[in-house]
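ESCALATION

Customer reports they have been waiting on this structure for their group meeting. Please prioritize. Original submission:
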Amino acid sequence: MATKISIRGLRVFAHHGVFEFERAYGQDFFIDCDVWVDAEAAAANDDLAATVNYGALADALVANAKTDPVDLLETLASRLLALVLDFGGGATTGIVRKAKVTVHKPNAPINHEFADVSVTVKGKR
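Update from on-call: job pushed to the front of the queue and completed.
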């Protein structure tokens, strides 16, 4: 049974960006994450250890996004995707079959009115 687990609008304050003021002052980023897993065993046995713990995944995404500032959203999104594809430990190692990560930068330094800037990356095992 293919199951999609989604996290939407995960907020993290970080210091990514091309410009020095972005690195110095930081800003909010928002992360959306979709993870596809085979959750048949988890559902049959009501067993969290057999699926992705979305609370632990959210913690890992935030911790990763707060570290090692990068210039590009593409770099950050790719780094987070790698984390998601490798997420899990013990019984859940390798449980993620495919994933999609979007990083939003709603306060990007653009000289025009806009609603959002985002980069989306997808991958699978």
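Sent to customer with the following note: The CA atoms of residues 68 and 99 lie 22 Å apart.
Escalation resolved.
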